[in-house]
Write a structure and sequence with these properties.
alpha/beta, Methionyl-tRNA Fmet Formyltransferase, Chain A, domain 2, 7-stranded mixed β-sheet
Length: about 325
């Protein structure tokens, strides 16, 4: 008989895991997810991907604003506690839920709470492991299934599998590969748990890094940095928040680029546009140069360089990264 699973998660990464659990035949009597949030141009309340998937399969959903019984929303926590108790599940699976689980939640299911984390722990504990792995230039990342404890991604490891980070991987592309892997690994972990074959391994004390939440303020490109570093950031910040630069009052989003082999000219400033043609906009960096191949202006769509240049006048000699006079910053 399959383990009964409470599932806690919110975004698409978590939806993939829930989908895989359901397809594998695990009964899911309850789903926890974040409250509906305003989204889109109309800023209408929108259910999370996990909530949408749960409702499509007739699974009860609870959306507490907090799980702390003595916190700001004790009534939400009490409702969640009652729902968890009524579900009588064996284990809770957690994936990108977005709320801290207090000790009472960790202790509620007999087999505790298993987390699907998108990194090779202990590297990149925290909120944005996929972004930070690409930004740092890591050659590999992966998924770790972890027995949760009260710390931030500090629990014992149960399963761990690596994947290569390919040269052109964006966060969006790598996210989808890791979401699929996470779904497969959590099913494998539950199967091993049922057979009594799941071994707990403490995380190493060496190699701990933290993947801090991505802030919108990080999106602005610093052209004094090396071309390779800027290129990684452009890939890491796709789809959110998107790397950007400015030209006077205009904000330009940068979605794709190529590192150019030309030598960095010492007599031009960083951000200087060296050449412009249908293959892209070549920009001087602190080390090397970067050819921007896909861009977007405010209110517009992502466009290949040739199409972008039809509606936006960029010329050699212009300098990116210089805001309009009087602009904040």
């Amino acid at each position: 008989m399959s383990l009964k699973v409470i599932f806690a998660g919110t975004p698409e990464f978590a939806r993939m895991a829930l989908k895989t659990l359901i397809e594998a035949g695990y009964p899911v009597p309850l789903v926890l997810t974040q409250p509906d949030r305003p989204a889109g141009r109309g800023m209408k309340l929108q259910a999370s991907p996990v909530k949408q998937h749960a409702l499509e399969h007739g699974i009860p959903v609870v959306q507490p604003r907090s799980l702390r019984l003595e916190g700001k929303y004790p009534e939400d926590a009490a409702q969640a506690r009652a729902a968890i108790a009524a579900a009588q599940a064996d284990v809770m699976v957690v994936a990108a839920y977005g709320l801290i689980l207090p000790q009472w939640v960790l202790d509620a299911p007999p087999r505790g709470c298993l987390n699907i984390h998108a990194s090779l722990l202990p590297r990149w504990r925290g909120a944005a492991p996929i972004h930070r792995a690409i930004e740092a230039g890591d050659e590999q990342t992966g998924v770790t299934i972890m027995q949760m404890d009260a710390g931030l991604d500090t629990g014992d490891m149960l399963l761990r599998e690596a994947v290569d980070i390919l040269p052109q991987d964006t966060t969006a592309v790598l996210h989808d590969r890791l979401a699929t892997l996470g779904g497969r690994l959590i099913v494998q972990a539950l199967q091993q748990a049922e057979r009594g074959e799941l071994a707990r391994v403490p995380q190493p004390r060496e190699g701990v890094t933290y993947a801090h939440k991505i802030e919108k303020a990080e999106s602005l490109v610093d052209w004094s940095r090396p071309a390779e570093e800027i290129a990684r950031r452009i890939r890491a910040f796709d789809p959110f928040p998107g790397a950007s630069t400015v030209l006077g009052p205009e904000v330009i989003k940068l979605w794709a680029c190529k590192i150019d082999s030309c030598q960095r000219m010492t007599d031009v400033r960083c951000g200087h546009i060296l050449s412009v043609d249908d293959t892209g906009v070549l920009v001087a960096c602190g080390e090397g140069a970067l050819r921007l191949t896909m861009m977007q202006r405010s209110g517009g769509k992502r466009l290949a360089a040739a199409d972008f240049l039809h509606g936006f006048d960029l010329r050699p000699g212009m300098v990116l990264g210089v805001p309009a006079a009087g602009a904040g910053g």
